[in-house]
## 1
Amino acid sequence: MSTAVITGTSRGLGRALAERLLAEGWSVHGFSRSVGELTHPRFTAHAVDISDEGAVRAAVDQICDPIDLLVNNAGSASLNALLLTPGSVAASLMRVNYLGAFHCLQSVGKAMVRQRRGLVINITTVAVPLSLEGEAAYVASKAALDALTKVAAAELAPQGVRVIGLGFGPLSTDLTRAVPALKLAELDARLGRPQGTSLSQAVDFIMHHLPAASSASGSIAYLARL
Amino acid sequence: MLTRPQALALVLRRLALLGRELGKPLLEQANEETRLFGEAAALDSIGLVTLMADLEEDVRLASGVSVQLADEKAMSRLTSPFRRVGLLADHLIDVVEKSTPPA
């Protein structure tokens, strides 16, 4: 039986991925600020703020099984023109999207180094390669995550730990609820996905990348035409 | 708490295991004076990272305390505790002491 740690499992992509892994026989530890409604005999919910280094370390210490997979999925978004984005919003995005992933990668990464194996998937966004206007602070925080993915992959490869990034266009989650439908449709068309991307398709894409042969460590793949 | 002999034994045991894994017999014969990191040292940076990750778990199992060996202070010290085996053993004791909640 394999064990995964997923951040942001209280809803959206994190929850959908947790449900798929549980259905396929995995044990899943979910890290979210609120515990959420997902219940399953092999699901353990941890109420943890991933921007709190000590809290993440304590949560990882509670996991006794070897950790095969970490998915840094938890994220927050804010659509604002650069000149209208409060500094506090930029700091908050960096805390969740970059620093939260950094803390999880560091704590779980140490466990994986001890095991000499493991896979880390950082969930990123097409907004980075597209340099999407109106999302400067969000894009910058995810670009930091992409850089972390590449450096971590190089540092952890000798100990058998793979680190990859997987990116999506807009998904139907709380993150995109505030985005005008027309803007989403325009972006989906630009990405070659006129019907948009469903949570189920995003989960399929992640599952496809679990085997080592499907992606080289340090690579960042997108479910989109860029 | 961790005594000096316990801390030294943890470091030497882990170095021996790592030596076997990496095919570096010198690590299996390490002693207090063995240089771990820096010029003419037994480990490269990847080896040092692996040693620290392994030792943190060893310390947790031995003392019941969750520690971080490579904290900001240790990394910025002029005389790094990671230079020699004996200094690392002293550092383990120091970190466990500081991480143990007061009784």
## 2
Amino acid sequence: MPIQYYIYLALSLFSIGVVGVLTRRNAIIIFMCIELMLNATNLLLVAFSKMHHAVALASNAATQVGIEGQLFVFFIMVVAAAEVSVGLAIIVMMYRNTHSVDINFLNRLKN
Amino acid sequence: MAITHILFWFLTALALVSALMVLLSKNPVYSVLWLVAVFFAISGHYILLNAQFLAIVNMIVYAGAIMVLFLFVIMLMNLDKETEPQKDIWMKIAGAVSGGCLLMVFVSLVKQATEMTGKEALLKTGTIGLIENLGKALFSDYVVPFEISSVLFLSAMVGAVVIGKK
């Protein structure tokens, strides 16, 4: 499969995530759109890893080129899991204080 | 048309439609369920690219753990009714237009990039995505980042407990 198709798919998913962050007001939905963007980059990393592997396979049949990309995706998933736990705790605390998860009520730092 | 190509286009359409439905559904619970569908489609793409370990981890960690956490929080807050006050329609149009501009810039950049013309992503073959090879690389070359990520998890756990206890 040409690599461009994977790039266009990942870019479309990323842009949908950006539009979600810009247009929604619910803090949880915004957080989910950030997860969507992270997954788009993960898909792109895996596709590029397989692209480099295909190039290297032509010269050497037992090559391991491209494995770094997939390990990087693994570490991105680790960081995303840690980020989600802290972020959801922050949203729960915010809901306890303001009884809303609307981000337009979060302008207290402005004044 | 080979079966892998049919699967590729099916999974792509599923991912894009589900991602759009995440934005368009008013109820946050439905958004979470559509996002689970996106993650399953992306896992299908990983299987198609023969990255089996990442496909399983994506399903377990994202669709299994993170999305259930989101569902718990939404149900804890009793947000499962249409309570979200809507943004100004002009703000929505401006957001959609700016996201579309970003996509256009990206697509034109990819169209100009000559390094990627004629390159293929290897489908169905290749052994680098198998658990054996990834495990060997993870526990020999990348063992220090792996251990540091456990410290990250510990700090995240302590942080979540401290924030949630107040």
